[in-house]
Amino acid sequence: MKLKQLLGLIYASILLCIAIGTTIFLKLMYIDTRTASYVMSTAIISTLLFAIINYFVIKPLLDTIMNLQKASQQNARGHYTTLNKYPFATELAALTKDYNTMVKQITQQVEELKQSEKEKNEMIANLSHDIKTPVASLIAIGQALSDDILSDDEKKRYLESVSENAQRITILADELMQVTIDNSSENTNVITDEIMVDDILIKVLNAFKPRIDHDQREIMISGFETIPAIKANEDVVYRILYNVIENSLKYSQSGTPIQIDVKVDNNMVNIEVVDEGKGIPEEDITKIFQRTYRVEKSRNQATGGHGLGLFITKNLVEKLGGKISVKSKIGAGSRFSVALPIYTD
């Protein structure tokens, strides 16, 4: 039996009991007609008052419970519904508000999951598309080399192309792997130790040396002489510095310098990478650390990537207890700052 039917049966029983009780009382007491009229009037008024209380008090409470039940059933089917009316009873009003808050949070989480799934599918589609180009080039080069129809100079150029295409495939695979690792270990802690930033920076710059020489870049470094050790993970710091420096190289012109400054501030080692690139529009500053977001809306081979580098970098910095920020001006370049905690015993 439903709650509404049960309460209706209880109401009818109460009214019937009042009517029967009043009749029996009058017969047993042999009350005169005038007194009997008073008693009957009192019974009728009591019945009316009971009906009014039922309509204005009990019925709204019952309706609220029924609405909560219906809304919960809708939510179970994936149709998230909030309640617009709040009952006057404090407990039920609080319950309704809590229910609406829960529904809004669930709705927001569902939308975030949908957006994340959409971004993931777009990223996979883009990676799949981009990986076809270097693979096709490698196949063509392999065919040309196997036919032995190339001169020595052509073979040299083709081998250089093999290296470039292989490097691009490695970058694409690395981007996908880093996002996968980040998603699967979002709440895990990174093992930290005493690390010297200058040692890692030298390794990163050595990795970029062919590119720096080719682009005729000058890398200017200052402040490392008196910098203390940081509390971090060597592989993670390498990845952070690699991504930030690569971003500056990617979005600034060949021949322009890159400045790397290091200083200590509030028990943090602050590493700043400054370029003279295009700069970042003000409306994009707060978005560049989002996954798959790119300032340049059109994807092209010149810059490459899928907007994952800074997203990965931000997550890695935060896992080390640090912060990353950026200041930029259109036409003047950008300054990326990475702050990591100083090592203490």
UniProtKB/TrEMBL annotation:
Question: Pfam families in the record, alphabetically?
Answer: HATPase_c, HisKA
Please cite one Gene Ontology biological process associated with this protein.
cellular response to phosphate starvation
Any idea where the Histidine kinase domain is? Answer: 126-344
Coiled-coil features, chain-numbered ranges? 96-130
**Which principal EC class is assigned to this enzyme?**
transferase
**Keyword vocabulary terms for this entry:** Coiled coil, Kinase, Membrane, Phosphoprotein, Transferase, Transmembrane, Transmembrane helix, Two-component regulatory system
Where are the membrane-spanning stretches?
6-26, 38-58
Supply the EC number(s). Answer: 2.7.13.3
Range of residues in the leader sequence: none
GO molecular function (one): phosphorelay sensor kinase activity
Q: Where in the cell is it found?
A: Membrane
Tagged with keyword Transmembrane? yes
Does Kinase count among this protein's keywords? yes
Source domain of life? Bacteria
Task: Please give the catalytic activity noted in the UniProt record.
Answer: ATP + protein L-histidine = ADP + protein N-phospho-L-histidine
Listed CDD domains: HisKA (cd00082)
Q: May I have one GO cellular component term? A: plasma membrane
Record-linked PANTHER family: PHOSPHATE REGULON SENSOR PROTEIN PHOR (PTHR45453)
Q: What is this protein called?
A: histidine kinase
Species, as recorded: Periweissella fabalis
